[in-house]
Amino acid sequence: MKKGLLGTTALIASGSLFAAQAEARVDLQLRGYMQQWFGYAKQDDDLGPKNGPQRNDFTGTNTFSDTEVHFLGSTTLDNGLTFGVNIQLEGNTNSDQIDESYLFVASSFGRVEIGSENTAFYKMQFAAPAVGLGLNTGDQNGFANSSSGINGSQGFVRGPFASTFVEINRVNNARVVSYYTPSFSGFKFGASYRPTTSGDAMGPVDRESGSDTLTDIVSFRSNYVESFDDFEVALAAGWGTGVLHQNGADDPSAWSHGERDGVRNPQAFSYGPLEAEQNRVHLSGAYSLGPGVKMVGTLGLSEIEDKSGLGTDKTA
């Protein structure tokens, strides 16, 4: 296994604009953020038999952007029910222009979300806080290639080799119905159901011919948050599975657990004949330039060791 370093610096600007018409029944909000990154990565690959004799060179400088505009609205009825919407426009994308797009209903009995959104399995996880480049989100893929050889051509985001914020089969923002309980003595529970992985597409789900290869995804997450004098305990654990319509293939499943102030969170993912290990360390800092504007930087090391012989060892 080879070793390398990556360093990044970013200027992050965020702000909010509130507007509402006097006759409107829903308060309208426009929010969002912009992140612009510049950095350098040194990366070494040991390509396995899955990739043949080819060599890649990803060492060097790069830039990437992450920008979103959020349209938010909510209203509370006389009976105490709060109805709201959340629509998120991607500013930098070559695929899905609208990311999250869902409606929610909240009351003293909990919260229900329906639309295109991440599951409770993903949203209720705890992990180390992000200061600079995301340690637990796959952000470093903007500088260090971690897609080929180990987890398919789409990288590690929402998968166990990039993040403990996991989705079943790494499905993101597909149609979902989720329920979140209120907090009881620090405990909270969430459950989600996806009929299919087809994102915003309309139409019935095909569970026979194979056009919908993964259906009926269910996942669950519980967490616990409690403060004791000068410290806080925040723990989470969850599991999920789905139905895979492929002959001879096992249904995918995933579990993960974490803590808010931890730096490593164990997890497992049973999907495909793969065994690998990743270790990642980041040293990050942030400096506030003024309201809504920060300068952040990260120096990091990431090592991936393939134990199955199907992929590659790589570091960045």
What does this protein structure show overall?
With 316 residues, this protein is mainly β. It has one domain (6-315): Porin, CATH 2.40.160. Helix content is 1%, strand content 52%. It contains 1 helix and 16 strands. The chain has a 16-stranded antiparallel β-sheet that branches. Strand 10 (214-228) and strand 11 form a beta hairpin. The longest helix has 4 residues, at 120-123. It starts with 5 loop residues before the first strand and ends with a strand.
Brief characterization of the structure:
By secondary structure, this protein is mainly beta. The protein is built from one helix and 16 strands. 1% of the residues lie in helices and 52% in strands.
Number of domains: 1
Beta content: over 45%
Work out the helicity level. under 10%
| Oligomeric state of this protein | single chain
- Tally of DSSP β-strands: 16
- SSE order, as H and E? EEEEEEEHEEEEEEEEE
What's the total helix number?
1
Low-confidence spans: pLDDT under 50, at least 5 residues?
12-24, 148-154, 262-273
What is the name of the CATH architecture? Beta Barrel
Sequence-ordered SSE layout with sheet pairings:
Layout: E1 6-19, E2 27-41, E3 44-47, E4 60-76, E5 82-90, E6 98-107, E7 110-116, H1 120-123, E8 175-180, E9 187-196, E10 214-228, E11 231-244, E12 253-259, E13 267-270, E14 276-290, E15 293-306, E16 312-315
Antiparallel strand pairs: 1-2, 1-15, 2-4, 3-16, 4-5, 5-6, 6-7, 7-8, 8-9, 9-10, 10-11, 11-12, 12-13, 14-15, 15-16
